[in-house]
Amino acid sequence: MEMEAKFTFDEMWEKILDCDRKYDGLFFTCVKTTKIYCRPSCRSRKPKKRNVEFCFSIEEAENRGFRACKRCQPEIEQSPYVEFTQQVIAFLMDHYQQKIGLEEVAAHVGMSSSYVDRLFKQETDETPRSYLEKIRIDKAAYLLANTNKTNLEICLETGFQSTSHFYKVFRDLKQQSPGQYRKEKGAGRNG
Q1: Cβ atoms 107, 79 nearer than 8 A
Q2: CB-facing half-sphere around the CA of 190: CA atoms within 13 A
Q3: Sign of the four-CA dihedral 158, 88, 83, 118
Q4: Distance between CA 106 and CA 101 in Å, rounded?
Q5: pLDDT at position 18, please?
Q6: What structural domains does the chain harbor?
Q7: Of 19, 61, 174, 186, which alpha carbon lies 20 to 30 A from 180's?
Q8: What is the model's pLDDT at position 5?
Q9: Handedness of CA 16, 65, 35, 37 (dihedral sign)
């Protein structure tokens, strides 16, 4: 699956620490010591970082000898639209650096734009556009904390078309400016 190239180990680790539901189905947390795999949103006690590896499908986890968590039950689909939701999220993750609209997402899943918008919102409580912005801001936050790239470089690399929109969305989602976030996370230079 292409998703492997889109996440670093540390990004996936952050998502499981946050119990971030929007990444469920895109990867699975495998705990080497217990031989259990979980969804990123699992509320079970978090393992030590050194005891974790990640898989990108249930089949991969089970082929490596892991069994499903009894708490989050990652092997059970929770909605008849899980595959649709995962297809949309995977498309957004694969194309977050590009200028994409609802029409491209709808073409990818073979449905009308209005149906994709309505069904995705029903399943995630967000529109594809707001979800895409969260993906972009998550990636920007990671780059701010872990690189010396300027805010402008990060803005453009994460698919934002204007710096003012980048700053507005970043502040809305993180409750601080990119510069404040970078200072708080203590990495990189001020950009």
Answers
A1: no
A2: 5
A3: positive
A4: 9
A5: 86
A6: 2-68 (3.40.10.10), 82-127 (1.10.10.60), 131-184 (1.10.10.60)
A7: 19
A8: 46
A9: positive
23-49 pLDDT tens trace: 888 899 999 999 999 999 898 889 999
Q: How far apart are CA 72 and CA 37, in angstroms?
A: 9
Which residue type occupies 130? S
**C-alpha distance across the termini of the chain, in Å:** 34
DSSP the chain: -GGGGG--HHHHHHHHHTT-GGGBTTBEEEETTTTEEE-TT--SPPPPGGGEEEESSHHHHHHTT-EE-TTT-TTS-SSTTHHHHHHHHHHHHHHTTS---HHHHHHHHTS-HHHHHHHHHHHHSS-HHHHHHHHHHHHHHHHHHH----HHHHHHHTT-S-HHHHHHHHHHHHSS-HHHHHHHHT-S---
Residue 137 C-beta-side C-alpha neighbours within 13 Å: 21
Is the pTM of the predicted complex or chain greater than 0.85? no
Which parts of the chain sit beneath pLDDT 70? 1-5, 77-80, 186-191
Phi, psi dihedral angles at 130 (to 5 degrees): -65, -35
Q: How many CB atoms lie within 10 A of CB 140?
A: 25
One-letter amino acid of 24? D
